Amino acid sequence: MSIRFRQLQAFHATYETGTVTGAAALLGISQPGISNLLAQLERETRFKLFERVKGRLIPTPEAGVLFQEVDTVVRGLDHVGQAVTDLQNKQGGQLQVASQHAMSFGFMPKLIAQFARARPDMSISFQSQYSSKVQEWVMSGLFEIGVCETPQLYDALDTYPFRVEMELTLHPDNPLTRYDILTPALCGSEPFIVMGPDHMTHRRTREAFESAGVPWNTRVHTHLFKNMLSFVQEGMGVAILDPFMLAHDESGSFVTRPFAPAIHMDMMVITSATRPLSALARDFLALLLDEIGRVIPSSDAPGRLLPPAAAR
């Protein structure tokens, strides 16, 4: 038996529309073409598919059984064709992004939502985690794009590094808000809410106080910038925090000031160096790098040159 898919399509369309004319219009081929395909299928199956009753084609019992099997195949291929069209138009597919915690509160969800507006059929996989885990996920192929802190743990990553100047964050009632710029000398007696001692912002802030010869009063230790902000809002002290998170926090009850010397956090956007990015991911990567560049000074922004797909 040598049944061709076009024959099954003609049968499926005729069964659903009830006429050769309707099937021809649905498939965009001529009525004689439909009739010829149906005749070919009847020869292959060795049973009659339709009886003509008052101008309509009534399926035989055998055709009813065949339709149940053919329906799944034909609709399945239609879905495949639509998926291909969506991918060609960059409307479908899946966006896979992972981010360290600070940028996952506000910044990344808003950027992904902006990207998704023109792609209603796109599915999204987004997770926030510690930077080491984000690198591991991108390395293993679980996510195409990651945003994390340095250092780079795996050689098989393409990186787009950028540097973020942190902001000193205070409760609005804190007397230090009267200063335009804050220094270790001005903050000598102020309790600080800090990340753990291994975090780069902890080390760099400690070095700034040591260089100034001022004791550093650390009161609360925690592991997320979002938690640090909550303690600031409760009046527990001040904190060196990430501007991406602060810019998208709508809870209020805090003010920010520059800190001198500047405390920086080194970050990077990462992709796999061993697997090509999907067209969807390449478009989002370009948007992400541009948006980061809008938030931080150009000298600290990530590079904009994306690797060509053929070179990956």
UniProtKB/TrEMBL annotation:
Keyword terms, alphabetized: DNA-binding, Transcription, Transcription regulation
Pfam families: HTH_1, LysR_substrate
Molecular function as annotated in GO: DNA-binding transcription factor activity; sequence-specific DNA binding
InterPro entries: LysR_HTH_N (IPR000847), LysR_subst-bd (IPR005119), WH-like_DNA-bd_sf (IPR036388), WH_DNA-bd_sf (IPR036390)
Span of domain HTH lysR-type: 3-60
GO BP term, example: positive regulation of gene expression
Family statement drawn from the similarity comment of this UniProt entry: Belongs to the LysR transcriptional regulatory family.
Family annotation (PANTHER family): TRANSCRIPTIONAL ACTIVATOR PROTEIN LYSR (PTHR30427:SF1)
Listed name of the protein: LysR family transcriptional regulator
Organism listed in the record: Gymnodinialimonas phycosphaerae
